[in-house]
């Protein structure tokens, strides 16, 4: 019986945590009384109290005996580290760090004239059409990176803006297996447009990543030029020595 009770309050805690992450309760907002929350979630006041205790241990809320329970603002790490867990997409990295990722599609264009460096990277003929997807990626509402992506239309033939705002890796892996990526990084000074999108001063230091993602059998499937804020991002690489 005790196991069932524990399972119930953990489930209620997860439901309440999801509501907080979705913004139903804002940072620093006082939560409704335990009795009101219990009624809303169809459980007992004791179960709700235990659920809130779980969220307090997870640093989602803070309880004050005299004032009530308040939502804690998530503590975003000083910098996001890309590459620590191998090849992961932006959304995957954010969720692993218990942060809230957001994507805004700035442009979704069918290209018939493809830049030569993209043709070479994706090994496409000059007349093969590609999608060009420009996206602004945010974490906890802070702009982090501007992506300019290129993928064969044949690979994602019916791509919509709604789909382009989701995980492209997840969509690609519906029909193929991603194997690895090749990435080149350069230090840059942000031009006015990119700086404005990333809410940094024009000329601020940043990273420009040129990357090609390959399928497990070595077929190039995605090319991207991505601009990263250097005050928010680091890159982690493991380098092997040839013998």
From TrEMBL:
SMART domains: HTH_GNTR (SM00345), UTRA (SM00866). Gene3D superfamilies: Chorismate lyase-like, Winged helix-like DNA-binding domain superfamily/Winged helix DNA-binding domain. Keywords: DNA-binding, Transcription, Transcription regulation. It comes from the Bacteria. Residues 6-74 form the HTH gntR-type domain. It comes from Lactiplantibacillus xiangfangensis. This is Transcriptional regulator, GntR family. GO terms for biological process: negative regulation of DNA-templated transcription. One of its GO terms (molecular function) is DNA-binding transcription factor activity.
């Amino acid at each position: 019986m005790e196991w069932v009770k524990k399972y119930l309050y953990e489930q209620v805690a997860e439901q309440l945590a999801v509501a907080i992450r979705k913004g139903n309760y804002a940072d620093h907002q006082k939560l409704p009384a335990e009795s009101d929350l219990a009624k809303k979630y169809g459980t007992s006041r004791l179960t709700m109290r235990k659920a809130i205790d779980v969220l307090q241990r997870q640093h989602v809320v803070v309880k004050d005996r005299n004032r009530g329970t308040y939502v804690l603002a998530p503590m975003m790490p000083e910098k996001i580290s890309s590459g620590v867990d191998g090849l992961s997409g932006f959304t995957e990295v954010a969720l692993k760090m218990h942060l809230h990722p957001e994507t805004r599609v700035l442009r979704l264009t069918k290209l018939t004239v493809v830049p030569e460096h993209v043709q070479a990277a994706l090994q496409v003929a000059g007349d093969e059409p590609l999608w060009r997807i420009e996206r602004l990626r945010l974490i906890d509402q802070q702009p982090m990176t501007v992506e300019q992506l290129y993928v064969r239309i044949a690979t994602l033939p019916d791509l919509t803006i709604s789909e382009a705002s989701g995980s492209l890796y997840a969509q690609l892996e519906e029909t193929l297996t991603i194997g690895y990526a090749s990435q080149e990084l350069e230090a840059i000074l942000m031009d006015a447009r990119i700086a404005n999108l990333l809410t940094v001063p024009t000329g601020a230091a940043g990273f420009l990543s040129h990357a090609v993602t390959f399928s497990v059998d070595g077929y190039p499937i995605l090319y991207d030029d991505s601009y990263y804020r250097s005050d928010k991002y680091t890159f982690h690489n493991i380098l092997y020595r040839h013998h």
